Amino acid sequence: MPTPHTPFTHALVPYDGSEPARAALMLAIALAKRGAALTVATIVDEATVIAQSASATTAYDPTPLMDVLDDQGLALLDDAVAQCRTAKVVPGLDMVHDTPVDGILSAVVKHACDLVIMGTHARTGIARTFLGSTTEGVLRASQVPVLTMRTVDRIDTAPFTMALVAVDDSEPADAALAVAAMLARRSETQIVACHAIDTDRLYQNAAAYGLAPELIAEMRVKGTALVQRALAHASLASDTPVAIIEGDPAIAVIVAAAERHATVIVVGTHGRRGLSRFFLGSVAEGIVRTSDIPVLVVRGKIPAFPKERRC
Questions:
Q1: Angle at Cα 276 formed by Cα 47 and Cα 98, nearest 5°?
Q2: What pLDDT does residue 311 have?
Q3: DSSP tag of 214
Q4: Closest Cα partner for 42 from 69, 82, 10, 15?
């Protein structure tokens, strides 16, 4: 039997030299060794320098500072190349002059990538809410799946061996299952479909309306039926393992992934912005910020996959 190859054809890694970016690059190298093309991009954001030069009391020529930024970008690419060379991987390189999120998204289109691999700093609280995060900006806007990695400690040489897929009754969940079906076809990934019952909210509602605790059992039955319909819609086998879990959805998914020795979590996201995202939160972003294994995030609608490759 041939060795399963990576299900993606071309991965983009935005690289800034940080530890999360190094983790993302290591993960990308693992995929490159299994057949994916790899492009490493560094984003040079000149907007701040140009704005400062124009708004200063005495205007000045920003060219020298921009040259410094370019030199720093080239040094980052050299650093990435050195890591790839050690692993005997030859990447493509790109230095993009743009704001971070827009620069990454434009590089995806420019290089016809079907996957972005990014590290995440796992910001929480006020810093994350008001300062934002390049990774979260890409997660909300990318038209291709985004694979995130928080630490180098849990990088697997075959990251798509076992996928736990978070399923609910939504279009993003359908998109996540469609990607999982693609993983199963192209990389022989084992799939576990997981549906979380938010018991904290459920118990609050039960108390408010005088409902009996047996409601949990009913929700488990309905959750199982929901997952089975979703599996059929994604053309996944009806005997695909199903896990109905309880608790805070993000935490429960991560625990379920650990219990089942998953090598990746697949989750859909609505790509919320602004106040709705701030108050409603996002299960996908909660998983990305806290998971120790890679998280494959699929935004909104089902991606258009490249044609199947033949071994």
A1: 15
A2: 37
A3: T
A4: 15
Residue type (1 letter), 28: A
Number of domains in the chain: 1
Whole-angstrom distance, CA of residue 286 vs CA of residue 272:
13
Under 8 Å between Cβ of 11 and 112? no
Q: Whole domain around residue 44: which residue ranges?
A: 10-299
Q: What single DSSP character describes residue 167?
A: -
* Residue 5 maps to a domain: no
Collapse the DSSP code of 157 into the 3-class scheme (helix H, G, I; strand E, B; otherwise coil) and give the result.
coil
Q: How far apart are CA 107 and CA 48, in angstroms?
A: 21
Nearest to 95 by CA among 140, 48, 131, 42: 42
Structure tokens at 228: 């089975």
Residue 70 included in any domain: yes
Domain assignment present for residue 308? The answer is no
Look at residue 279 in the predicted model and tell me its pLDDT. 34
What's the burial of 67, exposed, middle or buried (CB within 10 Å: 0-12/13-18/19+)?
A: exposed
Q: Which two tokens stand for residue 242?
A: 């199903």
Which residues does 120 contact at the CB level (< 8 Å), separation at least 6? 20, 133, 135, 136, 148, 149, 150, 288, 289
How far is the C-alpha of 42 from the C-alpha of 93, rounded, in Å? Answer: 8
Q: What is the CATH number of the domain that holds 89?
A: 3.40.50.12370
The reply to whether 133 falls in a domain is yes
224: its two tokens: 């199982």
| Each residue's pLDDT tens digit, 57-80 | 666 666 778 888 899 999 999 999
Lowest-confidence region among 44-48, 84-88, 307-311: 307-311
**CA distance linking residue 62 with residue 123, whole number of Å:** 32
